[in-house]
Amino acid sequence: MQLRCGLAALLATLATPAVADCSVGVSTPGVMNLSASDAHVLTSAEGTASLLIVTNLSGLFGTTVTISNPRLDTYPGGFAAGSATVEETYSATWVLGSSSNSTFSSSPRSFGVPVAAIVTLVLNNRVTSPGGFKQGGYSTKTTISCS
Amino acid sequence: MQLIPLLATACVLALAAPAAAQSLSPMHNAGPTPSDIKGFRLAIGNPYRTVMTFIVLPMDPKFRVLAADAAINFPEITLAPGSSRQVILTFRIDPARKERTIGVCVQPKNLASTVLPRVCGTYTGRRLGTGG
User: Which of A25, A110, B43, B46 is the most buried (most CB within 10 A)?
Assistant: First the structure.
């Protein structure tokens, strides 16, 4: 029972005034590095992006979190971005629940979250380029929608 | 007992202020209209610690493409930490149809991050006197 009271207090603290039905915040942007084992792969395995999603009590039917297909956002000039494959895995946890998919995929994914949850979502991206990577900076972009 | 570590984790994460965030309320609504125009009042909030500029986009119900014949009176708003502002969504309902659902997404403007966080909702307008 004490735990329930604690949880209720926590949620009450987090729930910003009446306007916050769902809030999405980026806690850690993530970093991609060239794979140590394969020069054709960029991976964020050691620098995953994490997000914090807060839903509150007014969402009676829960909340759907949709993870878009990831795309290559920045890359050096002359790099054949069209031949690169961008994929992603995710892991989401909240009190009394979780959702994850550890298979890399370039397709959108979604999962449902019950009423009043604080969700920690961790993304791990992978970019595969058959021709390898030119020297320069690369970054991916994933759209996270809370609806 | 397993809840305790989860709760502790949630507390720690909650205290770490995210770099960008937004909120939208309500996230779903529906209502009638006597004409072919329907409007909804929405609240956009910035619950975190930095000033944020948000873009408010009328979209299709799947949040994939921008919606035609739909507008937000303040499509770009800058909010102080912890503040909110109301905006008005208006959209046209085809006279040949009895209802239309519009999506609205709120997202940060010019966010340099690997993740683009969006909060989206759906709003349905029903034309009165169309048999149902």
Answer: B46
Interface test with A, best of B49, B115, B119, B123 (most A CBs within 10 A): B115
Asked if residues A30 and A47 have their Cβ atoms less than 8 Å apart, the reply is yes
Of B16, B20, B118, the CB nearest to A143: B118
Domain ranges of chain B: 17-125
Q: What is chain A's alpha carbon radius of gyration, rounded to the nearest angstrom? A: 18
Asked which of A13-27, A100-114, B60-74 is least confident by mean pLDDT, the reply is A13-27
Find which of B4, B23, B24, B42 to mutate to test the A interface (most A CBs within 10 Å of its CB). B23
What is the spatial distance between Cα B23 and Cα A33, in angstroms, rounded to a whole number?
32
- For the record, the structure tokens of A57 come out as 């009590």
pLDDT of residue B97: 93
Secondary element (H or E) of residue B15: helix B3-15
DSSP string computed for A67-116: EPPPEEEE--TT--GGG-EEEEEEEEEETTEEEEEEEEESS-EEEEE-SS
Q: Is the reported ipTM for this assembly greater than 0.85?
A: no
Q: Count of CB atoms within 10 A of residue B25's CB?
A: 23
Per-residue pLDDT of A72-104, as tens digits, reads 888 889 888 888 899 989 988 888 889 999 899
User: How many whole angstroms separate alpha carbon A82 and alpha carbon B48?
Assistant: 37
Give mean pLDDT, residues B20-31: 81
**Each residue of B46-57: b (16+ CB within 10 Å) or e?**
bbbeeebebbbb
Provide the whole-model pTM. Answer: 0.75
Fold type of domain A2-146 = Immunoglobulin-like (2.60.40)
| Contact (Cβ atoms closer than 8 angstroms) between residue A104 and residue A126 | yes
